[in-house]
Amino acid sequence: ALALVAREPGRRATLLAHAGRLRAGLRALGLEAGGDTHIVPLLVGDNRRALALADALLARGVLAHAIRPPTVPAGTARLRITPMATHTPAQLARALAAFADAARATGLLS
C-alpha cells in the first residue's frame, strides 16, 4: 500500500477532492457535514435518527455507517461517509441525491 501511495500520489488528491465535493454538497443541502480529511462526518445528533438515515441511504444504494455513543459523545451521533478515489463524478452526484432524498424521508430535512 505504501508503494502504491508513493507511485500514484494523484489517488490521494482525487480522494480528498471527492471528500470535499461530498462535504460541500451535503452542506448545500443544509446538512451538517464536517471534517477536513477523506472521512466526512455528517452530524445527526439523535441515535435513532442516525440509524434511520443510514438505513434509508442503504435502501438507496449508499453505505454510510451510523456512529453512536460510546464511540462518540452522547447527542453527537453521526454518519461516517468514506468516499473512494475510484468513485466517479456520476456516483458522487447519485450519492448526494440519495442523501437529499433520505434526509427528507427521515425528517432530517423538510
How would you describe this structure in keywords?
15% strand; globular; alpha+beta; 51% helix; 110 residues; 4-stranded antiparallel β-sheet
Structure description:
The chain is an alpha+beta fold. 51% of the residues lie in helices and 15% in strands. A hairpin with a 6-residue loop joins strand 1 (32-33) and strand 2.
> Quick one: overall form?
globular
SS-based class: alpha+beta
Helix content: 40-55%
* DSSP strand content: 5-15%
Radius of gyration: 14 Å
* Average pLDDT metric: 96
Q: Separation of termini?
A: 43 Å
Strand ordering within the main sheet: 1-2-4-3
Number of helices: 4
Largest sheet: 4 strands, antiparallel
pLDDT < 50 runs, ≥5 residues: none
Give the arrangement of secondary structure elements.
Elements: H1 2-7, H2 10-29, E1 32-33, E2 40-45, H3 47-59, E3 65-67, E4 77-81, H4 89-105
Antiparallel strand pairs: 1-2, 2-4, 3-4
Helix pairs in contact: 2-4
